[in-house]
Specification:
elongated, 2 domains, six-stranded parallel beta sheet, alpha/beta, Rossmann fold
Amino acid sequence: MQVLIQQPRLPHYRVPLMRRIVQLHGWDLTLVYTPRAGTGESGIEVRDSSDACWKTVHLPLRTYHLGSLRLNYQQGLLRMLRAEPWDAVFLEGAVANFSGYLAARWCRRHRIPCIWWTKGYFVPIGAAKRWLLRLQLREPHAFLPYGDTTHEFLKQYGVRGKQIVRAYNTVDIETIVACREMLQQRGREWLAKAGWQEKRPIIATVGRLIPTKRVDELLHALKLLAQNGQEFYGIVVGDGSEREALESLARELGLAQRVYFTGRVPEDDDAAILSVADVAVFCGALGLAINQAMALGTPVVVADLPGPDGEMVIHGETGWRYRQGYVDQLAERLQAIVCNDSGEIIRVIQQAQHEILQKRSLTAYANAFGEAVLIGRCLL
C-alpha cells in the first residue's frame, strides 16, 4: 500500500511514529517535508534519516501573504500526487497550508482517501481564517485530530462525527519508560553539572525559550517560593530567543544559585531531566514534554489553556492546573506538591501514567493512522 504523508517539517520526535506506522501497517511510505534549518528551530529537526524505512522528499516552501493570512505553498506537492498511484494521502491540517488544501481537492477529485492530521485552533481567529477553514475542511475524507477536544472544534466547522478518528498526539513513551533507569542516570549527571550539592526538590520545565512558553511566569513563581522559605532547585531545559532575557530575570529575582539553564540538550536528555525532577511545569504553549513527564511518573503542573496538548491533565486527577498569569496560584500549586508526603501525589502519578500509557501510546497513535485510511475509503 503506497501512502504519502505531507508535513511542514520533520521533527526528531516524529521519527519513531513513522517507524511504528511502517512496522504495524507495512506501508510503502513517502514522507514529504520542507527542511527549515536556520529558522531558530533547527535543534528540533532530524539531522540524518539515512536509516529510515521510508522514502523522504524535500520540497521548497514559498510563503504568500494575503492581508492577515499567511499561506504556505510546498512547490512540487501536486506534481508528486500525479506521479504515483497513491492509496492514501495524509496532509497537515493547518489553515496556512494552501498547497495541502489544493492537494486535498485533487485527492477528492481522483477518489484517493485524504486524511487531515490536525490540531485545531483554540484562540480567537478572524473572519477570513474562519471562512478559509470552512472551505478547507470540506475536502478531506477523514480527520486525524491531536486529541478529544479537537473533535468539537471540527464539528463547529461542519465536519461529521463519522469522519473523525479518535487519536492522541504523543511521542515514543514506551521506549522512554523502558529506558527509565538509564535516563535517570543521565538526569543525575545534569544535576551534578549544575553544581547542586544539597538534596532539594527539583522543579523542571522543558521547551523552546520563546515568548509563548512564558517561562518568566515560572521564574516569578519560584521567587515567591523562595520568599516563603521553600528550598528547591529549578532547571530550565531548552534554548531560544528568550534565553538571555530569562537568565537576566533569574539574576534580578535572586535565583541565580537556584535556577540552572541547560541550553539546547541532546535528543532524549529532556526526558532524562524530567525523570529526576520532582515536578514538571508548563506555563505557556503546551507541548509533548507533558506526555514524557506523565509517563515517567513526574507530577505535572500546566497552565489552564484550551486545546488538545494539555487535555490529559485533569486537575487533581492526573496533574494540576493553574490560571495562566496568576503566579501566586502557580506558586501555591508547586508548594503543595513539593511539601506533600501523603498518598495523594502517588495516586495522581499512577492515574497519569495509566492515562498516557494505555490511551496515548505511540502504538495506539500509529494504529489510528490505519483506521483513518479505512474511514477515508468508506467515505470516498
